[in-house]
Amino acid sequence: MAVIVVSLATSLTAVVVRSSFSSSPSLFLTKLKSAPCLRFTFSVSPFDSYRRRGVKLMAHSARATLGLTQPANIDVPKIAFSAKEIDVAEWKGDILAVGVTEKDMAMDDSKKFDNSLLKKLDAKLGGQLSEASSEEDFTGKPGQSLVLRLPGLGSKRIGLIGLGQSATNTYNFRNFGEAIAAAAKTAQASDVGIVFASTGSISNESKLNTASAIVSGTVLGTYEDNRYKSDSKKPVLKSVDILGLGTGPELAKKLKYAEDVSSAVIFGKELVNSPANVLTPAVLAEEASKIASTYSDVLSATILSAEQCIELKMGSYLGVAAASENPPHFIHLCYKPSSGPVKAKLALVGKGLTFDSGGYNIKTGPGCSIEFMKFDMGGSAAVLGAAKAIGQVKPRGVEVHFIVAACENMISGTGMRPGDIVTASNGKTIEVNNTDAEGRLTLADALVYACNQGVEKIIDLATLTGACVVALGPSIAGVFTPSDELANEVFTAAEASGEKLWRMPLEESYWESMKSGVADMVNTGARQGGAITAALFLKQFVDEKVQWMHIDMAGPVSSEKKRTATGFGILTLVEWVQQHSS
Fold it and tell me: Domain Cytosol aminopeptidase, which positions (predicted)?
């Protein structure tokens, strides 16, 4: 098998590999076994249509995108974070942001704060802080903020940011950072100091994680994806001082780690936000190759063309791709530490549908969300975002494979039809009873490929089913795995990252609805339990010796309120890989 290895300062090139088949493969690589008195021959390749249309496989032309749209270059916010131990009343800057719980806002009979820090700041401000918070009915509830310009402190303004009844986890502290970013935007502040009204109950280890979460929230809250807007404002925030959580090299290292991972989350958000007329499978492959080029000391890229995927007998993946004018690109990045032994081999597999029309089972009617189907590559964005972060933080002792079967699910005369039978690369046959259940078809071959890399554990992420959104809502991803060990690892990582997961059952009896009369299986089962049967389908393509988890992130891939991508999954994946680092 010929491959393309992309390293520093190289670009993708056209590679044509002739199929090793003695005759042209059938559509989606499905063959009939011989039977008495029956003889069939096939001479149609789904990729003959590419050649007829003059499309060069793996060739990246400079032709204009549909609509002539090109994203502007928007830099990731460059904010200088530092940890300091100084008198907060003397801190100089634009806003001193104080994180307060509802308990911190308690007042005595004379309407003065009970909390010692708030009492001290209020005294410096002549009692105006307690008076204003009472008048504005600020009680410290989550989402509340009060920013005042008052003389008496080293800072120009003081801000109270509500933490709710208590702030005890990464999710709360990241939201706190986002609230600070919002307050800084409104006030056009460039320098912000952050302090908690109460820190006595926070352990030293918790202080590290708290500071990290604040950095992550502040960076992500400051960034706005304005690449496709004709006019955009640059963020004003330049520096953030974290006060009262300690100092030293360990904390500084944690802040740097949070900045690196946050930049990877922004990269993932940009991928998902990019429209399908800009982010084609070829462009997604280019972005993956850029990551490998940037961190070429630890990352390499292999991009397989359609022809090479035919040689690997990826009929399930190629069946989905066959209708599109944009050829598929199978992406494989590999992280290997620059020195030391490798003690764990992991794989991250992401669904990479850069657009999903539904195929012949086209998405129609209210609620079909076809206009949001650029989000259908959210799994691949999580995987590639994780690759970027891993390339930056360079964990030791762990090898990681990042795998994406990128393509579009479109409609044309060369496309997959309902009732077709496709053959995956592990030899299993699938009767396609719904072309809009395409993501699992691409993941099938990606999972087989991942197992062939000799990995011990695999996590796949996909915007796979609406059923999971119905079950868990828009902010929680569903987790399916037969491995309790892997479940414990990933939930520990998710808790540290502040992302919400919920374990779902793999009810084997539901597989009955996935049986076909003419093939090994169908690609969709009964309407009830649709997220479970989708996970059971994927399980058919994973080696029994490999620990495997499927994460259905159809809900949290985007924010309905903000109408943009969230970058979901990247933080958890990086934490999980870090767990396996020596």
Answer: 434-441
Q: For residues 353 and 441, what is the distance between their CA atoms, to the nearest angstrom? A: 11
Asked if 464 and 439 count as a contact pair (C-beta separation under 8 A), the reply is yes
CB contact at 8 A, 549 and 487: yes
Q: Which of 84, 363, 428, 500 is catalytic?
A: 363
Number of H helices, E strands in the chain: 15, 20
Q: Is the pLDDT of residue 34 over 90?
A: no
- Residue 193 to residue 177: CA distance in whole angstroms: 11
Neighbours of 299 (CB within 10 A): 25
Candidates 345, 386, 344; CA nearest to 571 is 386
Catalytic residue chosen out of the listed positions 174, 269, 388, 440: 440
Two tokens at 518?
């003419």
Answer for the pair 405, 442: CB distance below 8 angstroms, yes or no.
Answer: yes
With bands split at pLDDT 50, 70 and 90, how would you rate the model's confidence at 25? low
CB 368 within 8 A of CB 356: no
546 in Cβ contact with 458 (< 8 Å):
yes
Q: Give the residue among 453, 254, 440, 236 at the shortest CA–CA distance from 356.
A: 440
Tell me the one-letter amino acid at 208. L
Q: Find the length of the chain.
A: 582
Residue closest to 298 by CA, chosen among 383, 380, 401: 401
Going through 413-508 in order, the beta strands assigned E by DSSP cover 421-423, 429-431, 457-462, 477-480, 501-503
DSSP string, 111-156: S-B-SHHHHHHHHHTTTHHHHHHHHTT----TT-EEEE--BTBSEE
- Please report, for residues 158, 189, 299, 344, 543, the alpha-carbon distance to residue 394 in angstroms, rounded to integers and kept in the order given: 39, 34, 10, 14, 28
| Burial (0-12, 13-18, 19+ Cβ within 10 Å), 15 | middle
What is the spatial distance between Cα 48 and Cα 52, in angstroms, rounded to a whole number?
6
Report the amino acid identity of residue 349. Answer: V
d(CA 482, CA 549): 8
In this structure, the number of other CB atoms found within 10 A of the CB of residue 489 comes to 19
* Contact criterion met (CB below 8 Å) for 251 and 84: no
Q: Whole-structure pTM over 0.85, yes or no? A: yes
Catalytic residue at 227?
no
Residue 477 phi, psi (nearest 5): -95, 145
- Give residue-wise pLDDT tens across range 88-129: 999 999 999 999 999 999 999 888 999 999 999 999 999 999
Which tens digit of pLDDT belongs to each residue from 514-547?
Answer: 999 999 999 999 999 999 999 999 999 999 999 9
CB 317, CB 441: distance < 8 Å:
yes
Phi, psi torsion values for 573, nearest 5 degrees = -60, -45
Nearest to 332 by CA among 359, 310, 302, 352: 302
Record the tokens describing residue 305, joined without a space. 């063309």
Active site residue 52: no
Identify whether the C-beta of residue 491 lies closer than 8 Å to the C-beta of residue 501: yes
What is the C-alpha to C-alpha distance for residues 526 and 506, in angstroms, rounded to an integer? 15
